[in-house]
Write a structure and sequence with these properties.
Layout: H1 36-49, H2 52-84, H3 88-91, H4 97-102, H5 119-126, H6 154-177, E1 180-182, E2 185-187, H7 207-210, H8 222-241, E3 247-249, E4 254-256, H9 263-275, H10 278-291, E5 299-301, H11 302-320, H12 323-336, E6 350-352, E7 357-359, E8 366-368, H13 369-372, H14 376-386, H15 390-404, E9 416-418, E10 424-425, E11 429-430, H16 437-449, H17 455-472, E12 473-475, E13 482-484, E14 486-488, E15 491-493, E16 495-497, H18 503-512, H19 517-535, E17 545-548, E18 559-560, H20 573-585, H21 588-604, H22 632-646, E19 658-660, E20 666-668
Antiparallel strand pairs: 1-2, 3-4, 5-6, 6-7, 8-9, 9-10, 11-14, 12-13, 14-15, 16-17, 17-18, 19-20
Helix pairs in contact: 8-22, 9-10, 9-11, 9-22, 11-12, 11-14, 12-14, 14-15, 16-17, 18-19, 18-20, 19-20, 20-21, 20-22
The structure holds 1-deoxymannojirimycin.
Protein name: alpha-1,2-Mannosidase
Family: Belongs to the glycosyl hydrolase 47 family.
Main location: endoplasmic reticulum
C-alpha cells in the first residue's frame, strides 16, 4: 500500500510510507499471520509511531523495573541460600522461620544449634536479631558497651522501629496460629512435646550485650531509696564483720560458714547491679576475681549452691556482661556435676566440690523432691552459654523421670525421692511448702524459659494446680482467707509455711503467660492471705509457719502461731509475690503492703551496727529475740524484690525477657515474648 499527500511548494515529495509485503508477511487466506518476524516488525513499527516523550517514559519504566528486579533477586538469593543450606531436619520447621525471626529480638537469640526436635532454636540462630539501643542500669563503668543515650545513632532508632513493625506483624500471625488450648492454656499448634535439645549448641552471649531498649530511665522513688538505704546498711554489717564469708552474724559482729564460699556476697551481686550500687559492686567483683576459689575440700548442698552461687553468677554475667562471672559459673557448674552420678540419675543432695565426689545425707539415700527439680533453670542456662550439653542433659533427665513417676496425687508430688530406685518415698504427704515448693515453681519457669514448647512441663504444672485446688485449698475463719494447707495420708492440715507464699507470684506469672485466667484470681486471693500472715501478727512480720482457723472462735484471728513456728528468717516469698502482682495488675495496694513489711523489717530486725537479723518471736514487739543471723537471701531476694516492687519501670528486669530463679536471680528467657 502507498499513500501520497500533496505539498504546496518544491518538487513533489514522497509523503508516504511504502511497505512491501513479502510472501511471509502477507496475510494469507486464513486472514492471520502470527509469525515471530511479523510480530517483531509490527512492534517495531508501533514503537516508531510513538512520540519521543512516550518512548522516553516507556524506557524509563523498563529501566526502573530492571533495577527493582536486580535488588529483589539478590535478597531472595540470600534467603534461599540460608534455607537450602540447612539439613532436612531443619527444613522440617521451615514455616517457622518468619515467626521466629520476628519474635521479639530485643533480648537474646536462642541457641545456635539444636537437635532435630527443636528446630525452632536452630531457626533463631540463623537469624540473629539486630542489636538495638539499650539503657543499662548499674555501675556505668562496668558496662560492656553502654551506648550513651544522647549519642545513639539515628539508624539504631530506625532499626528499632522497623523491628517493632515486624514484631507487630508477627503478633498478628501468632494470634492466628495460637489456637489450641489446654485447660485455658494457649499452646502453639506446632510445638514439640520434647524438652529442648541435648545436642547443644554454640555458646550464647550475655543478655546485656544483646538486650537493648531505648526508654528514658525511670527515676528512683522514695521507697526505692529506702530499699537502697536498707541494702547499704545490711552490706555495711557484712563488709565490716563477715567479708568473704557465707553469712553475717550481726549481733556478735562475726560470721557463720556454710560452704565457705562467700554466699552472701555472691547472692547479692545482681541486687547491687539492679540497685545501681556501683562502688559496692566493684568491690565485690574484686573479691570474686581474687578470692573466690571453688577448688576446696568442702561439701556443698547441690540445690543451695546451684540456686545461690551458680544462679547468682549467671545472672550477674547477664546483667554486667562481665565474663569473669561466666568463668566462675562454669567452674562451679562442673564441680557440681558428680552429684548426678547415681544409679537412678536422680542427683545426690551433697557434693564435695574439691574432690569431685557426691553423696546423699548420712541418714538416708533419699533426696528432696524440690531440690532435685529446682536446679534446672540454672544448668540449662549454663549449657546454653557454654555450648556444653552435659549440664542440660543431666537436669532434663531428672524432669523427664519425675514426669513419669507414680505416687503423685492429682499432680501433687511427695517430698522425697530415692537416688537408687528413682522412686518417690514417704508417699502420701503433699505440701506446697518446704521440700516440694519450688518443684511447682520450676515446672512453670522452665516452660517459660524454653519458649513454652515443653508440653510435659506445662501439663505437670497445670495438673498440679488442679491438685492444689482439689486437695489443699480451704478458707479460714473469721475472714474467710483462702489458704493452701497440707494433706497427710488423706487428712487435711490447716498448716501453711511462709514458703508457700511464692505461689501467688507463680500463678500470676503463669496467667501473664497465657494460662488460665482463674489462676490469676487464685493468685489475688492467696496474696491477700500471705499479707494477712504479716498483718495479723504483733510485729507485722510473718512467722515461718501459720495454722489457719477453720472454725470461728470468739477473740481468735484467722492466723494461729505455734511457739516453735514463730521465727522469721527475713524470707522473701511474700514480697516476691507482691512484686509479680504489682507488675501484672498495677494495683498500688501491693506496693503499700510491701512498704509496711519493709518498715517492720526496719523496726524489728535491723541491727544498729550494721546488718539485719532473723528473729525468734514475731509475736513480741518488745523483744522479738534476735537470732543473730542474716541469711544470704535477704540481700539476694528480699531487698531485690522490694526494690522491684516499688519501681514503676516494667523494664527493670522485664518479665517477658527474664525469668527469676528461685533465689531471685534473673536469667534470660530463650525466646522472649
Ligand atoms: C531461698 O533460698 C529460695 O527462695 C528457696 O526456694 C526457698 N528458700 C529460700 C528463701 O526463703
Amino acid at each position: 500500500a502507498a499513500m501520497y499527500s500533496g505539498s504546496t511548494a518544491g518538487p513533489p515529495r514522497r509523503d508516504f510510507i511504502s511497505v512491501t509485503l513479502g510472501p511471509e508477511d502477507a496475510v494469507g487466506v486464513s486472514g492471520y499471520n502470527n509469525s515471530k518476524a511479523w510480530r517483531r516488525r509490527s512492534c517495531w513499527r508501533k514503537w516508531k509511531q510513538l512520540s519521543r516523550l512516550q518512548r522516553s517514559i516507556i524506557l524509563f519504566l523498563f529501566a526502573f523495573l530492571a533495577v527493582c528486579g536486580v535488588i529483589s533477586y539478590t535478597s531472595m538469593g540470600e534467603a534461599w541460600k540460608s534455607i537450602t543450606n540447612k539439613s532436612l531436619d531443619d527444613q522440617r520447621t521451615e514455616q517457622e522461620i518468619p515467626r521466629l525471626k520476628l519474635a521479639n529480638p530485643a533480648v537474646l537469640p536462642a541457641p545456635q544449634k539444636a537437635d532435630a526436635n527443636h528446630g525452632d532454636y536452630h531457626e533463631l540462630s540463623l537469624q540473629k536479631p539486630p542489636k538495638l539501643p539499650h539503657v543499662r542500669r548499674g555501675p556505668s563503668n562496668l558496662h560492656i558497651k553502654a551506648p550513651q543515650r544522647d549519642t545513639r545513632l539515628k539508624t539504631q532508632h530506625n532499626t528499632m522501629r522497623a523491628v517493632e513493625e515486624l514484631v507487630e506483624v508477627d503478633k498478628v500471625e501468632k494470634t492466628e496460629k495460637s489456637i489450641i488450648s489446654w485447660r485455658g492454656a494457649v499452646i502453639e499448634p506446632d510445638q514439640s512435646t520434647e524438652p529442648p535439645s541435648n545436642k547443644i549448641m554454640e555458646p550464647e552471649k550475655p543478655s546485656s550485650v544483646e538486650a537493648e531498649d531505648q526508654k528514658e530511665p525511670v527515676p528512683i522513688n522514695e521507697r526505692q531509696l529506702a530499699v537502697i538505704e536498707a541494702f547499704r546498711h545490711a552490706w555495711k554489717g557484712y563488709k565490716d564483720f563477715a567479708w568473704g564469708h557465707d553469712e553475717l552474724k550481726p549481733l556478735s559482729k562475726s560470721y557463720s560458714e556454710w560452704f565457705g564460699l562467700g554466699l552472701t556476697l555472691i547472692d547479692a551481686l545482681d541486687t547491687m547491679w539492679i540497685l545501681g550500687l556501683k562502688e559496692e559492686f566493684e568491690e565485690a567483683r574484686k573479691w570474686v576475681a581474687n578470692d573466690l576459689v571453688f577448688d576446696k575440700n568442702v561439701d556443698v548442698n547441690l540445690f543451695e549452691s546451684t540456686i545461690r552461687i551458680l544462679g547468682g553468677l549467671l545472672s550477674t554475667y547477664h546483667l554486667s556482661g562481665d565474663s569473669l562471672f561466666l568463668e566462675k559459673a562454669k567452674d562451679i557448674g562442673n564441680r557440681l556435676m558428680p552429684a548426678f552420678k547415681t544409679p537412678s540419675k536422680i542427683p545426690y543432695s551433697d557434693v564435695n566440690i574439691g574432690r569431685g565426689t557426691a553423696h546423699p545425707p548420712r541418714w538416708t539415700s533419699d533426696s528432696t523432691v524440690a531440690e532435685v527439680t529446682s536446679i534446672q533453670l540454672e544448668f540449662r542456662e549454663l549449657s546454653r552459654l557454654t555450648g556444653d550439653e552435659k549440664f542440660q542433659k543431666a537436669v532434663d533427665e531428672v524432669m523427664k523421670h519425675v514426669h513419669t513417676l507414680s505416687g503423685k496425687n492429682d499432680g501433687l508430688v511427695p517430698m522425697f525421692i530415692n537416688t537408687n530406685s528413682g522412686q518417690f518415698t514417704h508417699l502420701g504427704v503433699y505440701t506446697l511448702g518446704a521440700r516440694a515448693d519450688s518443684y511447682y515453681e520450676y515446672l512453670l519457669k522452665q516452660w517459660i524459659q524454653g519458649g513454652k514448647k515443653e508440653n510435659e512441663l506445662l501439663e505437670d504444672y497445670m495438673r498440679a494446680i488442679e491438685g492444689v485446688k482439689k486437695h489443699l485449698l480451704q478458707r479460714s475463719e473469721p475472714k474467710k482467707l483462702t489458704f493452701v494447707g497440707e494433706l497427710a495420708h488423706g487428712h487435711f492440715s490447716a498448716k501453711m509455711d511462709h514458703l508457700v507464699c511464692f505461689l501467688p507470684g507463680t500463678l500470676a506469672l503463669g496467667a501473664h503467660n497465657g494460662l488460665a485466667a482463674d489462676h490469676m484470681r487464685l493468685a489475688e486471693t492467696l496474696i491477700e492471705t500471705c499479707y494477712q500472715m504479716y498483718a495479723q501478727v504483733e510485729t507485722g512480720l510473718s512467722p515461718e509457719i501459720v495454722h489457719f482457723n477453720l472454725h470461728a472462735q470468739k477473740g481468735h484471728k484467722d492466723v494461729e502461731i505455734k511457739p516453735a513456728d514463730r521465727h522469721n528468717l527475713l524470707r522473701p516469698e511474700t514480697v516476691e509475690s507482691l512484686f509479680y502482682m504489682y507488675r501484672f495488675t498495677g494495683d498500688k495496694k501491693y506496693q503499700d503492703w510491701g512498704w509496711e513489711i519493709l518498715q517492720n523489717f526496719n523496726r524489728y530486725t535491723r541491727v544498729p551496727t550494721g546488718g539485719y537479723t532473723s528473729i525468734n518471736n514475731v509475736q513480741n514487739p518488745s523483744n522479738p529475740e534476735p537470732r543473730d543471723k542474716m541469711e544470704s537471701f535477704f540481700l539476694g531476694e528480699t531487698l531485690k524484690y522490694m526494690f522491684l516492687l516499688f519501681s514503676d519501670d516494667i523494664d527493670l528486669i522485664n518479665l517477658d525477657k527474664y525469668i527469676f530463679n528461685t533465689e531471685a536471680h534473673p536469667l534470660p528467657i530463650w525466646v522472649p515474648a
